[in-house]
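> tool_call: predict_assembly(chains=two)
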Amino acid sequence: MARPSDPVDDRSDAGSVLDTDIIDTTTFEQILEMDDDEDEREFSKSIVYDFFTQAEGTFEKMDKFLEQKNLAELSSLGHFLKGSSATLGLAKVKDSCEKIQHYGAKKDASGTTDEPDDEVSLDRLKKIIAQAKAEFKDAEKILRRFYHDE
Amino acid sequence: MLHRKIWVKRPGASATLVKIKEDDLVDDLRDMILQKYANSLGRSFDSPDITLKIVTLKDQHQREERVMGPDEQICRTLDTAYPEGQTIHEALLIDVPHRRTPKPSPRAHMPYYPEETRPYESGTDYFPQMPINQPSPAGSTNHSHESRTSQVNHAHHTSHHSISVLQTGQIPPLPSPGGTRRTHHNRPGRPGYARTHTSSPTTAANPPTIAAIAGNPALRTSRPRLDSSASDAKHTVSSTTIQPLPTPPLATTAEGAVPPTSVPTTPRVSSPGPRKKKLNPKRITTRSPSPDVKPTLSILDTSVPPINVLIVEDNQINLKLLEQFIRRLKVRWQTAVNGREAVTKWRQGGFHLVLMDIQLPIMSGLEATKEIRRLERVNNIGIFSSASSEAPTLAGSRLLAPQDVDGKEVGSDAEVDEEKEKEEDKLGDQRRLFKSPVIIVALTASNLQVDRHEALAAGCNDFLTKPVNFVWFERKVKEWGCMQALIDFDGWRKWKDYAALQQADANATNAGSGPGRKNMQDKKDKAKKAAANKKDLDRLRRGARETSTSGGTGSGSSGSTGTGTESEGTGIGMDDAMGNKENKG
């Protein structure tokens, strides 16, 4: 998303200057708009912090189901976390969660081709869940800084 | 064989010479005339159509016209009439039946008797086959003057049923004395009934009565289509009149007309592809409604109808945001966290719109949708408005029995005891709260077409792609809400009055600040807010940059973050709803 845009555009368009895919500002700004008070940011803050809790809990569950090799549950959890991360605009986490969903459903990353070998799927899941966790941590850092809470 | 040339002419036209043989009959001459007038007559007339008249001068002032019989020998007749030879001024007159295009019968000003189409009992072959499409008196009123004129010229033979001439290809060569309808009509002892009563095409073409349609649910599907096309037409009319005049008063009148009609069309056309959106450099600017949307939104801003929305979403984060959305729209709402709960809540009645997440625990959104549609079928919601009648009559329930069976076939437990299931499915006293089928908007996380088709097939009317965009969310709620409000027009009116009162109260408390100033204030607030958001986003971005140096791996495959929505169809609910509206009105 790095774009050599001119400085004027750079300043006026917050969406284009976010150099990472961690947070989709379009989506996130929409949540900020729901705040009644832009100093307190009560609503968006609560929703973001709820998400932190939810994500941590979900990752814990994922680890558990990884151990149990429960692909179906992993797929379902992937879908679940995909929903909320997409809502907040955490694009990377969302993408990884989508992959968790697909791998758990014994398919390839895009969800189009079947993967007959469960071990392959499990192996992929391990990797992608680790990636998702890392991406979540990145996003969490940014967001905590945003809410002056570090 | 000797040849001879004789003069002929059409009335008012110039004469021409036709070559005939010495012993030709008038009948032969007609053939020759058709050859000569190959274009003007030959294309549409046969030689027996033609009547030839010979004009003789009895004395200085009196002309005498005589129709020549087909079996007359021309040369002999001519020699007798013009001993000194035929001159150009004595050309034979060619007469043809002069009404070739179907027109109301010149005698149509007379009282309309279908019996007139009966053939003569005497069996004369003047009108052997009578016309099926007797012109109606209503159609001839415009020509009453013309027909009166032709009544004056009644002696002229073409004043007889021109249609019958057309169909039979015959015309009486002479006016038939005493052969008028009137005498025939008054003839005593004729049969009292006529066959045209039963076979009349007008009777057959009569549209089925409302009762027939209401009683026959099979016809129901075809009706809304007619209805919607009619409303389309209305819409084009209203939009053409409204658009060139952007004055506020007209815009407010548009708010009633635009939303329901735009429902079937707009979602199809204007769906911003999520992928495209992602690639757009100016994301934030594109996020604000496009120019063609803006007026609609501003028109609607004050008029989110008083609908009741059920939000079905299992993810608390998403639910929280959707709740915040809906709170802003100031409509009533409830939530459910799984499909089973959604169906239970729906059964309480009074919901206009369901926002249904597809993937839900316990019972999926699709299953819940199917179940709701099944229950709607079983309880005949939207089939015809029995919302006013407390309980369906015995006849009514018997009439609709086949549908109950249908409903059960769809349901999973089709084999169980029918009576018991019926009781279970009955909505009971709450029935009056179900004015029309609920609108179900699916919330889909994926951009896959398959999922969308599946949702529509299950009975959803529309869908929103997650993450749900507030602009689209608002639009969907308003669009569908307005449609539902139109169906429940009385409720909407009450709400309108109530809203006006509220507005008045608000103005009163805001002493001094009129609505205009209030809007200005709102705008200011918004601008301030946007600025604050931007500032904060800048901070966010800075933070992101710091982090991205450590952990950002910039994958370009994140194109599936859909923020837009697409709509492909407006399922059954629509049609039913329109039908219901019709019945109510």
